[in-house]
Predict the structure.
Amino acid sequence: MKHNILNLDGESQLRRLVLLQSENNIERRDNLDLIPEARAVYAICGRVNGDLANPRYVGKTDNLQQSIRNHFDKAFIEDDSCFKVFVLSIKTKELVYQLVPDNYSLFVKYKEWKERFRPNCTEELNKIH
């Protein structure tokens, strides 16, 4: 299986955070409060051999923290069940995001990110990584 390994070195405008939600990791740690409540575009990715890889989802939002919390909410309905399986698993999930100023279109940035990150979620990918 070919992985989509992401190299974000030197991209200072991008922020990264390993997502920890208490119900989805062995140590019951939670760091979702560290996510800013701000306009942003974001990708939720997996990891392969310690490298950021295989973006499963790209989104845009006016409140990044709330959007990420919604992804972990079992009652929150999402169209992509493969992504939901990944998010609710104990697998390592990494958030990559960029804050978007009020004077810039979220849709334009979101479109750029969809083309760049090429999110893909498959059952095969979820079984392996």
Remarks:
- The first strand starts at residue 15 and ends at 19.
- The mean pLDDT is 90.
- The CA atoms of residues 32 and 105 lie 25 Å apart.
